[in-house]
């Protein structure tokens, strides 16, 4: 691949069009080294890897504007790009000072000037001021929201409501040629997720200090789709009592039930008779009105009506409630510039400590020693052998012969560019999550995430809408009925009344993505014990599955080591003894020179970096 992140990547609009074309053609990779099998010795055997990516299927894209008008239109000049992480410089990724960490407006300290690949997914530099009025948050920076330039920082835990911008806005006419021209304003994720504010990923970002490389925006509202209309769901205590949708009796009912959910384990007598029932059946016994049952089931717990047990529903509701108020008035954060920023942030930290990333560098096979049964090397497409002790392989690289006993699930995905929000308010800068209940029996609920331009994922006056659900058919068959309920697909046939109510889709793509989470290692045929398989993205809203999997693989390889410990400061890093001796041959023996040199070069990631202990011999 010529981009980072695999199926976790984000693309500019032109980058996504190239990705769509690649996956519609599905061409095999060329075999640059025809004689690679000659490199396998008599006491070795090869496990060939897949020659093409089969994780993406049924890719269909649609333009609902005048596509011909975009012929010859090119993207505007390249915006500043993040560096190629294999070539990080020490100066660009040094941790911020204490003053920077405590500042309410935490800026990224990445300032490298090396350019990225043209197709590189997560385009713009995080230092740029965000558009719009939404507040951004950097986890680990004292939990202080950082705001766009010129705004005051709101109090922590309060709703970050953007000021009124336009009352009753009329959507501007956006053409396809404008979308192409402003293509670098888009950062379009292949996988759509949000971060729970008390989830495993936020905790890991803070612990490992990777959070300094990213900025986040609060999801500003949770929506529900009921009786053909989109409504805002009251989440916090203040929201509940300020809501005009609920009667006073419903407000008391809802607060009483949510209070019970926060410590339901202390009251087993209230739910143990329903442990074998579904959560939906349990809600019916709690004297809740139909609208409250709908809000709790689909917008707070966000669970299946027919499959979720009472305990699972209570756990999901408690998780939602515990995440409220940490960074804002909803439980969710979204990374500026897209979900694809997250893997790149971890890549950047890895590169500082010597990790090397090779794009456009295919691997032919794993080389296994017959005597020990362990993998000892790989052979790349140049015919080069690379030896190692451990090998971590993403599921999509394994060939069909290795995966004969593996049964995969699929995720249905759609990405839309629209001209207005699904629920207009006095602020255009909203990040919304909406769960649409199943349209018919046996169908899954659909998770809809709508992003505004201040998330740095789309151009001004447009919205980026992600739809996700577990697959039952092709992505278009699964998701198009929901799209038709919420949006207009053809502007020529819409009536004036409908035009005011529904946003118009300007462009759309549907695709199915493989969900390889939950596949046990023993399901793969003939893999050596030192080869570890990681899955692609799962269909869940959060990132807990990926974090747990990464930690499990790490602990299997290094059981005595801490997973993602806080990195040492660059000035506390020195080379190991052999490298220090090599350095000393070209340096004077003055004590002032050595620590400065070793700290500078250690932070360049040139070798095995270790923290300098107090009193350690220079």
UniProtKB/TrEMBL annotation:
Q: Which GO terms describe its molecular function?
A: GDP-dissociation inhibitor activity; GTPase activator activity
Where is it mostly found? cytoplasm
Q: Where in the cell is it found?
A: Cytoplasm, Cytosol
Highest taxon of the lineage: Eukaryota
Checking PANTHER family in the record gives: CHM, RAB ESCORT PROTEIN 1 (PTHR11787:SF4), RAB GDP-DISSOCIATION INHIBITOR (PTHR11787)
* Bias-annotated ranges (Polar residues): 106-123
- Which is one Pfam family of this protein? RAE1_2_domI_C
Tell me its family: Belongs to the Rab GDI family.
Q: Which UniProt keywords apply?
A: Cytoplasm, GTPase activation
Q: Which GO terms describe its cellular component?
A: cytosol; nucleus; Rab-protein geranylgeranyltransferase complex
Biased composition, class Low complexity, residue ranges: 137-155
Domain spans labelled RAE1/2: 411-539
Biological processes annotated in GO: intracellular protein transport; small GTPase-mediated signal transduction; vesicle-mediated transport
> What name does UniProt use for this protein?
RAE2 geranylgeranyltransferase
Asked if the record carries the keyword Nucleotide-binding, the reply is: no
Composition-biased stretches (Acidic residues): 573-584
Renumbered to this chain, region (Disordered) spans 90-170, 560-618
State whether keyword Ubl conjugation applies: no
